[in-house]
Amino acid sequence: MDTIFTEGELTHHKYRDSIMRNIIILGILLLILGGAAYTIKMKGDKKAQTLVAADRGFTVKSMDDVRRVVIKHVKMPPFVFDKSNGEWTMDYKYKADKYIMANIGNALTKMQLHDIPAKAATNTIMQSLKLSFILK
């Protein structure tokens, strides 16, 4: 059975189809523009993070460059590990275990920041580290 539309109904259907087509086109354009903006933003963020990470690197490249490691505790005296002639000593008198020093070396050479704070927060962070006796 064929449906017969009046001229007014036919115009209404054409108008509705035209609006739907325009909405679909606008949706596709928004998706494309959103994807482009996201891509541009992410590229900019990666460059900025690389520059900031390089600027704020604190890990050690090699444990061969390290001569002393001091581990401070809030309620105990600090542990001082010194290296002389390739041997590590603890508190200037005890021979340090090579496996413990290997773990400390891994921690110092492989640390990574999960989140790099903004440069504006640097002063606050440094003051906090000084207050907690991590920095002098």
Rg over alpha carbons: 32 Å
Fraction of helical residues: 40-55%
- What structural category do the secondary elements indicate? alpha+beta
Beginning-to-end CA distance, first to last residue: 90 Å
Helix tally equals 3
Mean pLDDT: 79
Task: Kindly state the number of beta strands.
Answer: 4
Shape: rod-shaped
Strand order of the largest sheet: 1-2-3-4
Q: Any low-confidence stretches, pLDDT <50, length ≥5?
A: none
Protein model, in words:
The protein is α+β, with helices and mostly antiparallel strands. It has a domain at 63-131. It has helices at 7-55, 98-110, 122-131, and strands spanning 68-71, 79-84, 87-90, 94-95. A 4-stranded antiparallel β-sheet has the order 1-2-3-4, with no helix packed on it. It is rod-shaped. The mean pLDDT is 79.
Helix and strand arrangement:
Blueprint: H1 7-55, E1 68-71, E2 79-84, E3 87-90, E4 94-95, H2 98-110, H3 122-131
Antiparallel strand pairs: 1-2, 2-3, 3-4
In short:
With 136 residues, this protein is α+β, with helices and mostly antiparallel strands.
Which features does this protein show?
136 residues; alpha+beta; four-stranded antiparallel sheet; 3 helices; 12% strand
